[in-house]
Amino acid sequence: MGRIAARRLVARVAGCKPGQVRLEVADDGAVDIVGHDLSLSISHTDDAAVAAVSPGPIGIDIEPAARDIADLKDYVLNADEQERLLRDHDLSIIIRSWVAKESVLKAMRSGLRTSPLDLTLRFADGGGYARHANGSAWAFSMEERRGFLVAVAVPDADAALR
Ligand SMILES: CC(C)(COP(=O)(O)OP(=O)(O)OC[C@H]1O[C@@H](n2cnc3c(N)ncnc32)[C@H](O)[C@@H]1OP(=O)(O)O)[C@@H](O)C(=O)NCCC(=O)NCCS
Fold first, then answer.
1. Of 20, 36, 130, 141, whose CB has the highest number of CB atoms within 10 Å?
2. Is 122 in contact with 100 (CB distance < 8 Å)?
3. pLDDT, mean of each 10-residue run, the chain (162 residues)
4. Where are the domains of the chain?
5. For residue 54, how far is its CA from the centre of ligand 1 (angstroms)?
6. Which atom of ligand 1 is the closest one to the Cα of 60?
7. What distance in angstroms lies between residue 13's CA and the mean position of ligand 1's atoms?
8. Distances 30 to 22, 37, 112 between C-alpha atoms, Å
């Protein structure tokens, strides 16, 4: 489903047919588009799949919005976030943080080889910002659609201004 979504999206952007889009799995596990200078990200979960393309790094993640991952709290949220985010939000902040962090880790192309705890999130209207311990800065948008949460992350070009 994810690759079908990807082919349809790339075809629309590149002006060709989905069957003409060639995808290949890179050494890091991500799927690349052959012959087009675009980054691709794919995500799939029960009954739903999404894809995103960009001229620069991009990551996308989808999860059922009602998924209860309270038992993963210590894997998803670092100490600073547990104090700040769990104080200011209800428990749905854990799944929203998971989706945001997975989108960023996919934009970084490391996936879960990088600990989610090395990212620190700040939520804002319609998404938010993430900073990695190595200093890289990311912006994500997030929306809930048909019972699924979807986040899309890109480099935060304005990080220095924040
Ligand atoms: C990237 C990762 C977080 C995706 O997790 P997932 O539960 O499979 O979730 P999603 O459905 O959202 O994403 C699947 C897509 O992630 C993409 N992906 C895989 N590795 C990726 C990476 N290093 N960077 C960016 N995207 C990646 C692929 O396009 C995949 O699509 P496909 O199923 O058509 O091949 C996870 O696969 C990962 O951390 N991989 C790298 C480390 C690894 O291989 N660990 C073993 C499992 S933990």
1. 130
2. no
3. 97 96 98 96 95 98 96 97 95 97 98 97 96 96 97 94 81
4. 2-54, 61-161
5. 18
6. 12
7. 23
8. 14, 15, 12
